[in-house]
Amino acid sequence: MLAAAIVSTVTLALATFEFSMGDFPSALVLMGILPLAALLFFACLLWSASQLLRVRKDGAKFALPFAICVATLLALQYAPLQQIYLSQNFWRHRAERDRIVERVETGELVPNVDYNKNLIALPRRSAAVSAGGDIVIEDVEEGVYVLFLTSRGFKHYFTGFLRVPPNGDPKKFFEFADKPPSQLKRYDKEWWFVAN
């Protein structure tokens, strides 16, 4: 029973935090961990199903590991694990992100990455609010767009929380000039979750 609970917990944790581990080099580790966890979970499911044969002779406690595995499968299929993680991430870092946006708007934080005029490497104490410790900005007539990354992938793939200026349109952010966002979900008045 303990093995089924541990394997199920690991499986659910991987499904929940897969977004936050999607950037390089975590993605390489994830490519090894996910298949291993899936095989381990499948083996646990088979083992727990075999324990059902003992229920009649030894009692209902032998059905518990199978029930845990089935509950895990149901949670993986129907629970919005990544949405829960994103919502928690947004609200946990909201105040710090608002302070950073204010510092960008007042000119206290300016692009400071040599190879990209739209990147700001955040100070170490604020780096946790954006994957990789960088934010992406675009200064336009309406104000400043500020993108806090939740993941950075290969070939310029990213997800993150985009703060748009008042009366701004998240689709007009320069990162979406070639291709519209694949995900666009409002989190608050001027905040959107975006993915390309």
**Global geometry:** elongated
The share of residues in helices is 40-55%
Q: N- to C-terminal separation?
A: 42 Å
Mean pLDDT reading = 84
Radius of gyration: 22 Å
Residue stretches low in confidence (pLDDT < 50, at least 5 long) are none
Q: From N to C, what is the helix and strand string? A: HHHHHEEEEEE
Provide the β-strand percentage band. 15-25%
Total separate domains: 2
Number of DSSP strand runs: 6
Biggest sheet: strand arrangement: 1-2-3-4-6-5
Biggest sheet, open or closed, and with what strands and sense? 6 strands, antiparallel
Number of helices: 5
Report what the structure shows.
The chain is an alpha+beta fold and 196 residues long. It folds into two domains: 2-79; 89-195, no CATH class. It has five helices and six strands. Strands 1-2-3-4-6-5 form a six-stranded antiparallel sheet. A hairpin with a 2-residue loop joins strand 2 (134-140) and strand 3 (143-152).
Draw up the topology in text:
Elements: H1 2-17, H2 26-51, H3 55-58, H4 64-78, H5 81-105, E1 119-121, E2 134-140, E3 143-152, E4 158-163, E5 183-188, E6 191-195
Antiparallel strand pairs: 1-2, 2-3, 3-4, 4-6, 5-6
Helix pairs in contact: 1-2, 1-4, 1-5, 2-4
